[in-house]
Amino acid sequence: MDFAGRIYELLQLLVTNRVYSISFLATAGFALAVLLFDLHRRGYRFDWPVRLIRSVAANIGFWWVNLLFAPVVFLTSEHIKQGYDTLGIPSVDETFWSGVPWWVLVPFAALCYDFADYWNHRILHHRWLWPIHAIHHSDPDLNVLTSYRIHFLESLVMTTSYILLLSWLGFPTDVMGYGAILLTLHNMYVHINVDWGHGPFRYVLASPRMHQWHHADLPEAYGKNLANVFPVFDLLFGTYYVPGPCKEPFGVQDVPQNDVVKLVFYPFVEWTRQAKSAIRAIRPAQTRGDEISPQEREAFK
Fold this sequence. Notes:
It contains 12 helices and no strands. Helix 2 (18-41) runs parallel beside helix 7 and helix 4 (102-124) packs across helix 6. It starts with a helix and ends with a helix. The protein is mostly helical.
C-alpha cells in the first residue's frame, strides 16, 4: 500500500474505532467540566489573565499540530513494532486475560502503563532528550489543556516505550485502550491549577499539587514526581518531592513560552547547539589557542 493509502487507512481507524471515539468524548467532556468549574469559582466572570489565554491558545495549537503529525508517529511506530516482532520475544497469550474481570484488568493495565510512563518520563529529563520534553514544561500557566502541550517526538518516544515494555504482556487491545483513556483523563486532572493534595491518599494517587512541583522552576524539584498517576514509583525510586503547597513559578528559562512555531522547532535548534558544543569540546585546545571551558567539558559528557 502506498503512503497516501496508509494515511487514509489511519484516518478511517481514528474515526471508526470505538476506543478513540470514547476517548474523544471523555476528554472533551472532562475539559468542559473543568471550564465550568473554573467559571463557577470566578463567579461566572470570564476574567482570565492575558497570559493564561495565550497559554490555552498555544495548547490548543499543539493539539492541532500533533493531529497533523499523527500519521508520522503512527507509521514510524508501526515500523518499530515490526522490528520488535522480528526479535521473537515471548509474550503472554491474550487468552490468558480472558478470565480476569475488566474492573481488575483495566486498572492493572493503567498501572503497567504508568510504570512505562515513569521510565520514559525519566529519560526525557536527561540532557539529550530534554529539548523534546521542555516543550511540555514551557507552559507558564498550568491548565487542563497543558496535558496536550506535547511535542510529536515525545509521543513517538512514549509509543516506543509502550512497545518495548508492554507488548510482551499481551493485553487485549480494548483493555489497553480503556487504560489509556483513564491515564489521559488523570493527566488532564493533575494539570488543573488548584492546590489539591489528596490528604491521606497522596501516596496512592498523584494530585495536582504533586504535579505542580514537577513543573516548578526550582532546582530542588527538577526531575521529581515523574509518575503520572501512581506516586509509588516515585517513592520506590527516590524521586518523590512534595514539601507542601507549590508557590513556585512554572515554566522553563530560555524556552519559548507560548509560541507554537518556535516550540515545534525548538528541539532541533537545541540539538544543533548541543552538537556544536560537543564538537568544540573534543577539538584539541592547541588548535584553538585557548583552554576548554568547564561548560564545554560538561557539554561533552
